[in-house]
Structures are given as structure tokens and as C-alpha cells.
Amino acid sequence: MKQQFHILSVLLVLLFFGVSHGQTEQLFEQGNQKYAAKKYQEAISAWSQILDKGQHDASIYFNLGNAHYKLNNVGPSVYYFEKALQLDPLDRDIKNNLSFAENARVDAIEPLPQTVFSKWHRNVVGLFTYNGWAWIAVACSIVFVILFMMYYFSGSERRKRVYFVTSALSILVFIFTMLFAFQTYGDYQNDTPAIIFAESTEVKSGPNMGSESSFVLHEGTKVQILSSENNWVQIRVADGKDGWMPTADLKRL
Question: Domain 2-103 carries which CATH code?
């Protein structure tokens, strides 16, 4: 009896996922048809229902970005292209369309200048995620152990020198990859980007409406969230300026 119940449960789960997948494909195709007919708001409605079901895919976010761009919704278009890029960071179409959406923004913010070394360091560290650097560090530690054992048990002086040098190099690479892993993890923990959705918003010197206005931002601008207090968030812009703004005026990525 228990075995029959277990089989029935598995069949019901498979049936549920089959129906859910079919509905997702139907909504995705429906959105494509509405987009082709230039009914962009209806296309957005269809694709948004897929997200409401908890199914996230770069192509869905990409399509939503395109539809919002067609409607001149700068903030949502940048937001959805950024979401698509998070899931597929190497896609050229996403990068190109994101640049088009960014060009439609009112704010032209120049990021803080970087030295040649800092650019090189950021490019190297950004080659892998913290998980990728951690796995490389594990591989280097294994290589070090193998090479050290070969050095220890080798009877040839020439081979001993080769094994010693290569094992020393592997431990150096291990140290650097561990440092990169910790740095990328720290950057990941501190990375809380958001997109301005309000048409315009005043950035205040403090977390209340009575505070002095520092500067104004417009929809589509990307910011970093530093902290939050009640219904306010402290943000920093790429040019280094920071301040407080209402939480309702932006959307976290």
C-alpha cells in the first residue's frame, strides 16, 4: 500500500511539472506573438506571469527589457536587461541592448577614475566567481601535494629540483587564488545594486524628507545600496556621491 502511494505521489509531481512547463511555454509564445504585433504591454503581462510562477530565465528578462524599451520605460528596461545579464553575462545581445537602454537615461554619470593597476587587478579577479577561484585553489593544493610527494620520494637530483620548483609555484598560485576567492566573495556580499524606477528622485543628506537635498537622480540610473533605515536606503552612485532616498523609488536587482 505504501509503495502504491509513493508511486502515485511521484506521478502527481511529474504531472504537475509537466502542466507547469506547458503553461510556461504557452505564455512565452503568447508574449512573443503580442510583441510581434507591437502589443508590448500585453507581451509584458504574459512574460511577467512566467516570473510570477518562480521561473527565471535570461531570455524572459531580455524580452521584458525589449518590450519596456519599446514603451520608453527607461527604468524597467535597464532593470530587466541587467537581470538578464546576471544570468547570462557573456551574451552580446543583452550587452548591446543594455547599452541602448542606458543611453536613454537622463543622468550621465562618469565613474571614478581607476589606475592601470586597479583596472588590471579588477579584470583578473573578475575572470571567475568566488566559487571558481575556490575550486582552482583546491586544484592547486592537490597539485602541490602530488608534486611534493614526488619530490620527497624521487631519487634523481635533477627531478627533485624540478618537483621542488613546480610545487613552490603551485603553492604560490594557491595563495593568490585563495586571496582572489576571498576578495570576490567579499565583493559579492557587498554588491547590492539597484535601478532607479522613479521618474526623478531627490537624494537627501539624511533618511527623512526634512533633510537637505544633495542631488537628483532619474529613472534607469544604477546605484549601490549601502544601508537601509525604515523606508529609506543609503545609496552610492558610480561617481562616488552618496545620500539617502525613499526605498519605493528604486528596485533591487
Answer: 1.25.40.10
Distance between CA atoms of 65 and 76, rounded to whole angstroms?
A: 7
Instruction: Classify domain 193-252 at the CATH superfamily level.
Output: SH3 Domains (2.30.30.40)
Map out the domains of the chain as residue ranges.
2-103, 116-190, 193-252
Helices 92-103, 74-87: axis angle to 10 degrees equals: 160
In tens, the pLDDT along 116-143 reads 777 777 777 777 888 888 899 999 999 9
What are the start-end ranges of the H helices in the chain? 2-36, 40-52, 58-70, 74-87, 92-103, 116-125, 130-153, 157-190
Identify the residue whose cell numbers are 566559487: 131
- 2-103 and 193-252 in the same fold: no
Reference 211, options 221, 198, 199, 202; nearest CA is: 202
pLDDT digits 0-9 by tens, 83-111: 999 888 889 999 999 999 999 998 888 87
Residue whose cell numbers read 524606477: 197
Q: What is the pTM of this model?
A: 0.73
